[in-house]
Design brief:
Layout: E1 3-5, E2 10-13, E3 35-36, E4 39-40, H1 43-56, E5 64-67, E6 90-94, E7 103-107, H2 113-132, H3 136-144, H4 157-161, H5 169-183, H6 191-211
Antiparallel strand pairs: 1-2, 3-4, 5-6, 6-7
């Protein structure tokens, strides 16, 4: 069951990969080496590292969305008691406040969700180090490159979802669920098709909310 986050108009589950970001071919993914007290890092361990880094940037938990192909708990965070999904990609979205531009970082180079989460945290830490060493302006310019999301391209959302352009939210959600069942990579679909479907749903709901 998908988990929608209306604050971001994105899904915690399944993965909302940012449009325009290239994917790593599964054949070239590698084993990570992120550890916690000598043991392989867990999903929650990776999440806690990300939240700690963003908290250091004065970004509140409510302004962070972590999206993966791991089903979520009631609080919207990925559960740790599941098998590794075929697509271990991770996308993290954040903003300084509700009126600020949303930014994102997405990594799928490693074979496990936990390692990709830890890689996002390590990257955030490395970028924060720029500021610690007196490069605040450089850091600001660097983070601009993580603005999300690019202007939409390709088919209109109603074409992807196979609904009318004036469809209700209920119709959109129903069509999304039916299509996701066939298109999700874990069921024999493709990453590209699922990404396009997720993006179409996000655009549709954002349009409905904007018209309300």
């Amino acid at each position: 069951m998908k988990t929608k986050n209306r604050r971001f108009s994105l899904t915690n589950y399944p993965l909302s990969w940012p449009e325009g970001w290239a994917r790593v071919d599964p054949e070239f993914r590698k084993r990570g080496n992120f550890k916690t007290y000598g043991n392989s890092i867990s999903i929650m361990g990776g999440i806690n590292r990300i939240l700690a880094q963003l908290a250091s940037m004065k970004i509140s938990r409510d302004d962070v969305l972590i999206s993966t192909n791991v089903q979520t708990r009631l609080d919207g965070l990925p559960r740790s008691d599941q098998r590794e999904p075929s697509d271990p990609g991770v996308a993290v979205y954040w903003r300084k406040n509700q009126n600020a531009q949303m930014q994102c970082m997405a990594i799928d180079i490693y074979r496990s969700v936990a390692d990709n989460l830890a890689a996002v945290a390590a990257t955030l830490d490395a970028m924060r180090a720029i500021e610690r060493h007196g490069g605040a302006q450089v850091q600001e310019r660097t983070f601009r490159g993580f603005a999300a999301l690019p202007a939409k391209t390709g088919r209109a959302w109603w074409e992807v979802l196979r609904v009318r352009h004036d469809a209700t939210e209920e119709v959109i959600e129903s069509s999304f669920r039916a299509l996701a069942f066939d298109l999700h990579p874990d069921r024999g679909g493709s990453h590209h098709a699922m990404s396009e479907l997720n993006k179409a749903r996000e655009e549709a709901l954002a349009e409905i909310e904007g018209a309300a």
